[in-house]
Amino acid sequence: MLKNLMTGVFLNLVEYQEELNRQIEQRVFDEVENQEAKYELHITLIDREDYDPIHEFLRPMLYSDLNNQMLDITGVAELVRNGGEIPLFSLFLEMETKQIWELISSQRIFKGTMVTNAGTYPLFFKLKQNLSYVNEIEKLYQSFMLNGKNWRTVNLPYIYKFVDCVLVGGEGEPALHEEIKEIVVSLEEYDVFKRSGVIPLWNLERISQRNTGFPMPAIDRINFEHTLSLRQEGAQHGYLVDASEADVRYILRSEDRLVIVTPRNESGEWGLVKIIKPSMTNLTHFPYPVFSNRRNEQFTVRLAENRGRIIRSKAEILRIVHSLEASEGIELVDIEIREPSKNSEMLSASSSMTYPLNPFVSEGIRTNYGKPVMNLAFRLETNGNRKLPKFLEADVLSYIVAEIQTYFPDYRCEGAYL
Known about the structure:
It is a single chain. The protein is an alpha+beta fold. Helices cover 23% and strands 29% of the residues. The strands form five sheets. Strands 7-4-5-6-3-8 form a six-stranded antiparallel beta sheet. A four-stranded antiparallel beta sheet has the order 2-9-1-17, with no helix packed on it. A four-stranded antiparallel beta sheet has the order 11-12-15-14, with no helix packed on it.
């Protein structure tokens, strides 16, 4: 009886102490605010016909992707007669990115067929990199800079796998009254990798909003404050002002509003980039995996990001890798520093599998010339819960290496799997 009495007393005491410890831990964790979570980007692919226009948070990267492409037969007939090039449509290739680039650079000509209501015409195509999605990322980067937010590499392993089919010639001359029924291109041995009608989605949309009330003079008595309320759109999402540098002096943020300090003295519409907070339970039914630049929720990650201090050591690189949700199933096993060679621009080792994901980011004070090379070796865990499609392995690795690159600008980072 005494044993049971003592056990009951101390068990409650232990549980009470554990609860207090948990509350203290949560308070410390909450004091290091994680604003970055509002600016995490998620991306996947879907067939155009399967897109849900009222989906909770995923939107097309380009709304023009939803339109059925109406081909102009006059342009096709003119090109067949006079020569030239016309990009007709885009394809997604389920191949490694470097293979795609080699195929594009080979300038190989592929055969195709145009079927009209009056006959069939042979056509000739070549492939060209589709940069429309890369341009969207660059526009987003400019918005981050305008708003004074830290840029984080976007984990978009799909976007370099889109190619344009460019019409470069053909045989026969279709009449103007003919109606195009179908245009088919054969990539021969690469036909098994091509996917048509596939479009990328992400949790971002561009909206416009009018400022509330009249513009108020700013503290400098020169500019004006335009206040935008975020309550209707939702304060839980991330917002960036989408405007020109000339229109924005600086931006103040609070929980439910944005204050834009601007030379504009009249009320008006402001463009906003809305980064929608995703529902993490609604990411599993897509035909392609959903990728993000989300970081794991760890106190050390928040603290390091808020302090902004980088200790250049292997342990710090390991922390950066493990902080990325995309690194699940990928282990950093070795780091080697190589001295730059005289031909530094061509130094990229043949063993490197990665490519730069932030080519539009320029510091203006450093160049790649003469930088030591940080060679990062990774191992892909084959027994983990996560199974990465083979054709995306190098792209996810490129994202991880690009993130490390942002912390080590004095090196040129390259990566490969062992």
